[in-house]
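A student in our group prepared the protein record below, which I am reviewing. This is what I was given:
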Amino acid sequence: MTELTLAKSLKIITSALAKGKELNLKPLCVVVLDAGGHVKASQRQDGASMMRFEIASGKAYGALAVGAGSRWLNLQAETRPHFLEGLSAVSGGKIVAVPGGVLVRDRKGAIIGAVGITGDTSDNDEACAIAGIDAAGYTPDAG
């Protein structure tokens, strides 16, 4: 299995923030987690509101927890709210079930981490995460 390095994590962040600038988005916070759910790198743009780190982390953590992007979790919240209530309870409330949490897969398809982004609409957050993961040479999986 490929390791998600700090250098690649920083590439994901800078590329995701560049995409946000290109799209003229609100200030973003980007969190990159390794496959074990540990923070590898994070940046919060000037002007990003409070709690952005926690929200971005929750999107990425949720994706890792279930092995699917947070877009899938959002669908589950709509169709199976009891599932999300239980998942939230067993995770200690760490999961944020809205788009913007994207799995990072290596060339063989193994999950090596996740990226969570927040600050703009969930769809825009997700687009920036995908752009960052692509730029680092990995495969994004938004769910």
About this structure: The chain has one domain: 6-141. The longest strand covers residues 111-118.
